[in-house]
Please model this.
Amino acid sequence: MKKATTATAAGTFGFQFVPSRVWGANSRVQFGGIGTGGKGDADISGSVNAGMACVALVDIVDAEKISQANTDSRTKARLKSIEKARSKFPDAKFYTDYREMIADMGDKVDAVTVSTPDHHHFHATLLAMQAGKHVYCQKPLTHSIWEARTLTDVAAKTGVKTQMGNQAHANSHMRRVIELLRAGLLGKVSEIHAWTNRPIWPQGFTTPPGKEEVPLGVDWEQWIGPAEWVDYSSKIAPFAWRGWWNFGTGALGDMACHIMDMPYWALELGAPKSIKAKEEGNTDLSAPIHSTIEYDFPDKGVKMTWYDGQIGAEFDRENWRLIPGEFNRPNEKILEGVDYKRYESVIIGEHGKLFFNRKQDIWFVKPSSLLDGFEFPEPSLDRARDDDNYKQWLDAIDGKIERAQSDFAYAGPFSETVLLGCLAQKTPGKKLQWNAEKMKVKGHPELDKVIRRDYREGWEVEV
Model:
């Protein structure tokens, strides 16, 4: 597909979904994997294990040329790992441009997984939905707030089945804790505190690294895609892009869609009215080394505080890495001696506190007497088949359930809330008043270009 054609297709919002094909009870949903390394490998494998068939693969790395690549051994090894999927699925058709795959495969593909760096999520997902493809997209759903709002709207208009890759959303463990909170275990909730030790990649740099030769077999033009041009460096791809505002959304974008998910879902928080960030190490190029972000939901009577990074950590430019510091976390009054490395969040209500970890299926309340005489409610939330979010997505596609519960109707607004924290990180110390309906920050028109970013020539989207 030519770039001009792609730009035109991306601006077409009148599409009404018609299934690309109708499959019988014994047919398998056929999908294309956009992004094959790291999380891409997991998403492709998860979809296949759920019962789908992988018929197309997209990546900017051509494995056949990597062995000749003029690059350091660590980068070469990582680049080669990106292409493992080609040996797993030798019959799948391979592309280096997802626009070409979507145009070329037509009704041979029913769905796609999108496992690219953040700055490609929107374009790949939008084009797929407009072509009538169901989409599983990694978190955060998009790189910008306007993109998240747009994908939410297009998903509703097209009727395709969607899912965002915050996998624990499908866990019965999380759903049970939500039921307990909604049943009044803590009484009226007033505070949420959530934390992570990430970034574990470089952040806080002020200038780009030196230009390097693009390794043979890497399509750097396609990797940059809609983002502002930066010369190739192994300090950007294939891993450290998360710390770049140009391509990623920092520790917040990487982890908050996991860690903030349970309380956001349980309390049905919606959009905050204000956001404020305290941080260290934010630059025009890079997300901060650590930050503390305050979200205010006055309509719910709830304040949520996010903590990321390590206090006292430093960016070592010579070795392009972070020198560790002390875990940024809630204070002792909030933690009350609880091991913050074992848990990820605490919910505070009028009767006590609930500490939660999505990964280890553990939670407990303080005081423990909150459980004395508490009438445990009957399950009220649907359970995902085998607690598997890929199977839940497939069940939605097959019509066995109405929707996957982290579909874009949920994940879009949730991603907007997460990305508002990135907006606050770029204006540290300022309390931003957010108008969700207009997608505007009161008194800060300069942030409009962050809320809706510009795209490189050939990647424009007109709405």
